[in-house]
Amino acid sequence: MAIYFWAFVVGGAICVIGQIMFDVFKMTPAHTLSTLVVVGAVLDGLGLYEPLIEFAGAGATVPITSFGNSLVHGALQEAEKHGLIGVVTGMFEVTSAGISAAIIFGFLGALMFKPKG
């Protein structure tokens, strides 16, 4: 039961940080999104994001910071196996399923529903 609480708290805190970036710092959505992805990447590079995932579960894997974590995590894993070329291929290998699913489901949604405008 505690995992649900901590997932809510950590995921909510990440969202609050994003909202503060919008409201207080007047950042655009693109700047906020990019900043949160970079923060996730830096935290993974420092070895701090995996413990956060173990602690908060979906609270750390659902927000956009997890995308930065996935990029760096995949790049580091493949770099150990294949060197410099593994950095590039690792990023695509780890994130390709999620990106492909987003494209496919977005396309299917566009086919099934008409936008109101």
From TrEMBL:
It comes from the Bacteria. Keywords: Membrane, Transmembrane, Transmembrane helix. The chain crosses the membrane at residues 6-25, 94-113. It comes from Calidifontibacillus erzurumensis. Pfam families: SpoVAC_SpoVAEB (PF03862). This is Stage V sporulation protein AE. InterPro entries: Spore_V_AE, SpoVA. PANTHER family: STAGE V SPORULATION PROTEIN AC-RELATED, STAGE V SPORULATION PROTEIN AEB. The keyword Transmembrane helix applies.
